[in-house]
User: Which sequence fits this backbone?
């Protein structure tokens, strides 16, 4: 099994599994994207991002990723939840994803992802959240 190091702790194996944490690479990719930060400057909330079997709580403060942590208790939640299988996110993060994987709403309509909770903040800041969820595309060497 060969893997590619992404950021500090994100790893993607040939079996299309996200190993370890999405913390360092994702947080840095978002926080250095000035255009994305401008779109999200009014966004301060916490949401749940399901990547395969792992759920991450993402805390946003004025568009910046302030904290990413692995959910440890089932009662921990955010304003809304976005979930998909690891394989789906990995395809979504490719520079040119396949059809139905290129956009959050394409993934939802194809049944590849789910969205739950109070989605008003997501809809009000849709461009920001689409950019946020695709931020790992900008991490060097995200795919082998």
Assistant:
């Amino acid at each position: 099994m060969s893997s590619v190091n992404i950021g500090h702790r994100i790893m993607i194996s040939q079996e299309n599994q996200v190993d370890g944490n999405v913390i360092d690479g994702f947080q840095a990719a978002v926080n250095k994207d000035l255009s994305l930060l401008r779109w999200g400057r009014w966004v301060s909330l916490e949401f749940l991002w399901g990547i395969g079997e792992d759920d991450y709580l993402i805390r946003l403060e004025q568009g910046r990723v302030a904290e990413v942590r692995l959910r440890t208790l089932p009662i921990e939640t955010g304003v809304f939840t976005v979930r998909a299988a690891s394989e789906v996110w990995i395809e979504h993060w490719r520079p040119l994803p396949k059809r139905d994987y290129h956009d959050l709403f394409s993934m939802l309509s194809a049944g590849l992802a789910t969205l739950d909770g109070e989605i008003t903040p997501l809809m009000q800041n849709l461009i920001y959240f689409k950019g946020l969820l695709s931020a790992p595309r900008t991490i060097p060497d995200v795919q082998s």
